[in-house]
Amino acid sequence: MKKPKSQDIFRMTDGPMSLVRRTICMGTGMDIEELSEKPMIAVANSLTDINPGHNHLRTIADRVKEGVHAAGGIPFEFNVPAPCDGLTEGNEGMRYVLAQRDLIADMIETHVRSMRFDALVMIASCDKIIPGMIMAAARLNLPSIFLTGGPNVVQMRFDPKMKGIGHEAYDDIFDKLKVITCASSGSCEVMGTANTFQSLTEALGLSLPGSASVPAFHAEKLRFARKVGMRIVSMIEEDFSVDKVLTQKSIENAVMVDLAIGGSTNAALHIPAIAHQLGIDLSLDIFNNFSEKIPTLCGISPNGPYGLQDLFIAGGIPAVMKMLADDLHLDALNVCGKTLKDIVDETTVLDSEVIHDKREPYLPEGGTVALYGNLAPDGAVVKQSAVAQDMRVFRGRARVFESEADCIAAINANDITEGEVLIIRNEGPKGGPGMPEMLAATMALSLTGKNRVALITDGRFSGGTQGPCIGHVSPEAYDGGPIAAVQDGDEITIDIPGRRVYVKLTEKEIKNRLKAWKPYEREIPTGFMQRYVKYVSSAARGAVIE
Question: Are 306 and 164 in contact (CB under 8 A)?
Fold first, then answer.
């Protein structure tokens, strides 16, 4: 069998060291002759005990390894961190979550290169881990395949009052908590960043068709795991490397599917970051261009009442792509070896209430769009599918906060007035540092019943955020972006249909204010984050380390 990389370990070309390498391998209990003949498969697993999104991945990885053995390969598992956004919301831990995306990519890339693996299987469920793994796969350009851990089920599904998984469907606070309470392992059931990127592994062609939305607890996930293990060995024999799958066309397919499912605004960070690894410069404009022709087809929370279990039952991501067949690049390849056309031709939409026909969409435009203006010259993003129609054009007076913590304190003190536009700055990739999510602020607003308040930040939002929440404002305040010049009382206009966000100030007024501006400096612990601040790019370019 082919061993394009790992054969270097077993070549008897450098005298004593050749023998040393073989004897080290013998210490693992492996048969050295078998190991010298069969391909070595890296299984990058994000197993962790600390969150439900990943605490079940041992079983899935074991089944993958069974498949590798059955197909004639030798699997070697290693682990990477699996940070949980939910556990870090509202505290300092959130500053380190996005930064771990690039660390995960570096870990996988360097380990796989150093150990001379022939191929890569990636296993993960949640937010930053999935794009980090894909970034590594793009750099390595080996035969590579993704297996998602799958969504979980929320506690409300076991309650007789169940009428959807959006908290807005319930008045009682305990019922609202049940729609965010994880009742099983797997990623949180809403269309947040985790399930957005599980879905997009299929749109990119990196996951076996139909595998991404299979629930974490479903037996079908284990069957897919074994198929993944077997398929990766075949991919080596076929010289089926990642560059056959990850292309400009597959990136564009991912953007279109993201818009159709009402995906997380974090896609506007991670898709450009993946494209960057491929040498593709992906502007935020791509979301606006495609949003005009790709409507939102799925009412998955927070866009509507459904959850990922409903999407799975309705036919999953292949069914969504079938509804987009006229727009997608159907000649794009999937890791199974088929074209996207082959896949959608074999697919049936099983519930048109969950996955709408494009001619009768759930919403007329795609979920995420970019906004520009003198407040965000390089762009900002908003999940328009989660914004009420009467709030898509909004004008109000600015209320400026230098951090999320300051804003939350004002909300908790009931010191926020309807009609205001809350500005939270110094939370970007450099200023945060780490571009933390502002979910704690948006949840606090929601629980206080403030329905006519907008929020603008150079930080980011959770995929589960609702309302007129404008994030990723670039340039960020730390770099002297116009958001740093805004003062209390300035008039702010948000015009989502017009793709505009601006402050009623002239260019000269903004420049004059910035003359007296100094960066807001936070104390940064010694270590990685000090290096991160030096090298991280703007949110408009994916917040990649360059």
Answer: yes
Residue whose pair of structure tokens reads 């979550």 in the numeric block: 97
Share of the chain above pLDDT 90, in %: 79
What is the Cα–Cα distance from 118 to 34, expressed in whole angstroms? Answer: 15
CB–CB of 124/211 below 8 Å?
A: no
Please state, in angstroms and rounded to a whole number, the distance separating the CA atoms of residues 11 and 417. Answer: 72
Is 213 annotated as catalytic?
no
Q: Specify the pLDDT at position 466.
A: 66
Superfamily of domain 370-541: IlvD/EDD C-terminal domain-like (3.50.30.80)
The CB density around residue 434, as the number of other CB atoms within 10 Å, is 27
Task: Residue 73: name the closest of 44, 40, 34 by CA.
Answer: 40
| pLDDT-derived band at 162, boundaries 50, 70, 90 | confident
Cα-Cα-Cα-Cα torsion 243, 245, 249, 255, nearest 10 degrees, comes to -120
Q: What is the pTM of this model?
A: 0.94
- For the 38-151+186-345 domain, the top CATH level (class) is alpha beta
- Distances from the Cα of 242 to the Cα of 65, 141, 154, 207, 227, angstroms: 20, 5, 35, 12, 18
* Cα angle, residue 256 at apex, residues 377 and 301 outer, rounded to 5°: 90
Q: What is d(CA 127, CA 130) in angstroms, rounded to the nearest whole number?
A: 6
Sign for the pseudo-dihedral over CA of 272, 278, 279, 285: negative
Question: pLDDT higher for 177 or 515?
Answer: 515
CA-to-CA distance for 490 and 116, rounded, in angstroms?
A: 58
| Contact indicator for 194, 34 with CB cutoff of 8 Å | no
Largest Cα separation within the chain, whole Å, is 77
Q: How confident is the model at residue 174, as a pLDDT?
A: 87
Q: Name the catalytic one among 125, 301, 385, 462.
A: 462
The pLDDT of residue 180 is 85
Confidence of residue 431 (pLDDT cuts 50, 70, 90): very high
**Is residue 82 over pLDDT 90?**
yes
Query: What would the two tokens of residue 202 be?
Result: 């299929």
Q: What is the pLDDT of residue 463?
A: 63
Domain ranges of the chain: 38-151+186-345, 152-185, 370-541
CA pseudo-torsion sign 453, 456, 461, 466: positive
Report the DSSP beta bridge partners of residue 544.
none
